[in-house]
Every structure is written in structure tokens, then in C-alpha cells.
Automatic annotation (TrEMBL):
Chain residues that bind NAD(+): 7-12, 81, 135, 250
Protein known as: Glycerol-3-phosphate dehydrogenase [NAD(P)+]
EC number(s) per entry: 1.1.1.94
One Pfam family hit: NAD_Gly3P_dh_N
Family classification: Belongs to the NAD-dependent glycerol-3-phosphate dehydrogenase family.
Domain Glycerol-3-phosphate dehydrogenase NAD-dependent N-terminal: 5-152
Occurrences of domain Glycerol-3-phosphate dehydrogenase NAD-dependent C-terminal (ranges): 175-315
GO MF entry, a single one: NAD binding
GO terms (BP aspect): carbohydrate metabolic process; glycerol-3-phosphate biosynthetic process; glycerol-3-phosphate catabolic process; glycerophospholipid metabolic process; phospholipid biosynthetic process
Organism (species): Tichowtungia aerotolerans
Protein's gene: gpsA
């Protein structure tokens, strides 16, 4: 297959390597020619995926027209730039191109999932790939399992076959909403998990946070049309576990620094990689409010990120809510 990856960040690079490892011809696009030229000449994506030797067969470009005539497009631009980036590709994508979205975020203005944004831009449904998968490990061949979701099973099978390899296992799901929301809403809970690490709390605290975090993800997800059982799968609890626990997680790391007392501004100023949970906490909270869903952890993360609330006060407020049945 001719494959085209839109987004030269860590995840775009790891997915491009996975496809190239399966014998596909792969081109990866990034918005800044200078950045692309540096990667091309160094054979390393030193900003977003340092220390990984890139296969020479992968082509690097900043030209959207290079996507013309490709069989499979992977859209993995961070949520904040997703719509504007995809719009520049519209003239080059044919109806027959398989399109899969690997971004995990919400549109900050409209609160749409990324596949909804893509549908609006492209006037057709696309598939979604999500699951517990840090680029740092996928790029090094660490065994990983993810889910590809959509409504057309034949399309899903083609995407599954394109990515499947000895160290990358792909399951299919017909619950696009659930798979996409699991990968998105967990980012906010992972920021909270990092805050707990930064404050110096214990394993009990992390387990409680993840369990109650999953409860609010599933409540909100179901209200938004997801199947509740999807949140017990790779894209639900699987991704929540890896993001709340991993040293690779950007969301957890930002949370840890917040918990240690650094200001959000200070952290974001020195960071080129994205932490979607910081951008998406408000969108998730607003969606919950609109659908009358109780999301106390997301609400506290939102207060910390949006209003600078003291993380220790947020913890105190969470622990001192009214008694409830589980
Ligand atoms: N890194 C991972 O392990 C991983 C795994 C699964 C999913 N994801 C998701 O994939 C998406 C992309 O994350 P990533 O880790 O590849 O990114 P990254 O943080 O490694 O890199 C940031 C990306 O943003 C791009 N960018 C910056 N300014 C831009 C602009 N103005 N217009 C367009 N693009 C711009 C950069 O070119 C770069 O590709 C996110 O939604 C993330 O949650 C990441
Ligand atoms: O590094 P994070 O926190 O953006 O998480 C990356 C992936 O979503 C993990 O599956």
C-alpha cells in the first residue's frame, strides 16, 4: 500500500515506522519544512521521538500535494490543529482513500470528537485507531495492542491488516464513539494521576483515582452514545492504565509537575510535545455539564488548568464530597 501519515510528532513517526515495517511505502508529512529537513538529514526525529533510528525507506515532506493517490491516510495531527490541517489535504484525498484518525482529543470550540471534525471536512465517515500505545515503545518494537473502530467492517479489516505485525496487534470494534472517547477522556484523568504523583500520594490514591476516573469516563461516554462495555477494553481501561502509570505519558508528566507546584505557564513554555488533557479538560467538563453528567475529577482538573486552583485544595475538595454509593 501507499501510506501517508499526516503529523510528524512522536505518534505519527511510530505509526509510520509500523507501516513501513510491514512493507508499505510510507510518506510522513509535517507542517514546518525546516523541521522536516532536520529529520530527513539526521535520520532521527530528535524533537518528538529522540533516540530512534528512522528507516531510510520512509519519505518526509511538508507538501500536502504529496498525499495525492495514496491508499491509506493516517491523520495524527494534535486536536488543536486538526481541522485546519485536514482542510489543506481535501483537494488531494480521493473517495477511495482509507482514512484513519489516531489523534486523541476534542475540538476545543465545538467539543466534537476528531472523527466528527473529519466527517465535517471530508463529508464522509472515517475510522479511528486508539489504545494503550506510547510512541516511544511502539517505535522500539515493544509488543502493543490497539483497537481500530468504525462502522464499515471491510474498511476496518483493511486497516487492521495494514498495521498488524508481530509486535503490533490490532483488534476491530464497531463502537467508534466509545473507542474515540476512551482515548480522549483518559488524558484528563492522567493529568490528575500525575498531580497525585507530584503531591507524593500513594498507590491506594492512584488506584482510587483510576477506578473513579473510569467510572466518570464511562458515564459521560454512555451519555454521548458509546457502548459502556467498550470502556473495559484496550481503548478504555487499557489506555487509562498506561497513561496514568507510564513514565512516557506527557499528560501524567505535566500533572506531576503541577502537583510539585510548578505553574502551568512555566511547564507549557518549555514543552513542544502535546498534552491533550490540558487542552481538553474544559471541553470534557462542558460536555458533561451539557449532558448533566457528574465528572468530579475532570471538574477539579479543569479548575486547576483553567483557574489555577491549588492541586492540594482540589484533592481536599474531591475527598470531602458528600458520601455516595459506589
Ligand atoms: N505520543 C504518543 O505516544 C501518542 C500515542 C497515541 C496517541 N497520541 C496522540 O496523537 C496526537 C499527536 O501526538 P504526537 O505525540 O504525535 O505529537 P507530538 O507531541 O510528538 O508532536 C506535536 C506535533 O504537533 C505538530 N504541530 C505543532 N504546531 C502545529 C501546527 N501549527 N499545525 C499543525 N501541526 C502542528 C508538530 O509538527 C508535531 O507533529 C495527539 O492527539 C496524541 O494524544 C500520541
Ligand atoms: O503521552 P500521553 O499522555 O499523551 O499519552 C499517549 C497515548 O495516548 C498513550 O496511549
Amino acid at each position: 500500500m501507499n501510506c501517508f501519515v499526516i503529523g510528524n510528532g512522536g505518534w505519527g513517526t511510530a505509526l509510520a515506522m509500523t507501516l513501513a515495517g510491514n512493507g508499505h511505502r510510507v510518506t510522513i508529512w509535517g507542517p514546518f519544512e525546516e523541521e522536516i529537513e532536520t529529520i530527513r538529514s539526521a535520520g532521527e526525529n530528535s524533537v518528538y521521538l529522540p533516540g530512534v533510528d528512522l528507516p531510510s525507506e520512509i519519505k518526509w515532506t511538508s507538501d500536502p500535494s504529496a498525499s495525492a493517490g495514496t491508499d491509506l491516510v493516517v491523520m495524527v495531527t494534535p486536536s488543536r490543529f486538526y481541522r485546519s490541517t485536514l482542510e489543506t489535504f481535501v483537494p488531494y484525498l480521493s473517495e477511495n482513500t482509507l482514512i484513519v484518525s489516531a489523534t486523541k482529543g476534542l475540538d476545543e470550540k465545538t467539543h466534537q470528537r476528531m472523527s466528527e471534525v473529519a466527517e465535517e471536512v471530508l463529508h464522509r465517515e472515517i475510522a479511528v485507531l486508539s489504545g494503550p500505545s506510547h510512541a516511544e515503545e511502539v517505535a522500539r518494537g515493544v509488543p502493543t495492542a490497539v483497537t481500530v473502530a468504525g462502522s464499515d467492517f471491510q474498511t476496518l479489516e483493511k486497516i487492521q491488516a495494514a498495521f498488524m505485525g508481530p509486535a503490533f496487534r490490532v483488534y476491530t470494534s464497531d463502537d467508534l464513539i466509545g473507542v474515540e472517547l476512551g482515548g480522549t477522556l483518559k488524558n484528563v484523568i492522567a493529568v490528575a494521576a500525575g498531580i497525585l504523583d507530584g503531591i507524593g500520594l500513594g498507590d491506594n490514591s492512584k488506584a482510587a483515582l483510576m477506578t473513579r476516573g473510569l467510572a466518570e469516563i464511562a458515564r459521560l461516554g454512555a451519555a454521548l452514545g458509546a457502548k459502556p462495555e467498550t470502556f473495559s477494553g484496550l481503548s478504555g481501561i487499557g489506555d487509562l492504565i498506561v497513561t496514568c502509570a507510564s513514565r512516557h505519558s506527557r499528560n501524567r508528566s505535566v500533572g506531576e509537575r503541577l502537583g510539585r507546584g510548578e505553574s502551568l505557564q512555566e511547564i507549557m513554555n518549555g514543552m513542544k510535545q502535546v498534552a491533550e488533557g490540558i487542552w481538553n479538560a474544559k471541553a470534557a467538563r462542558d460536555l458533561a455539564e451539557k449532558h448533566h453528567i457528574d465528572v468530579p475529577i475532570t471538574e477539579e482538573v479543569c479548575q486547576i488548568v483553567e483557574n489555577g486552583k491549588d492541586p492540594k485544595q482540589a484533592l481536599h475538595d474531591l475527598m470531602n464530597r458528600d458520601p455516595k454509593a459506589e
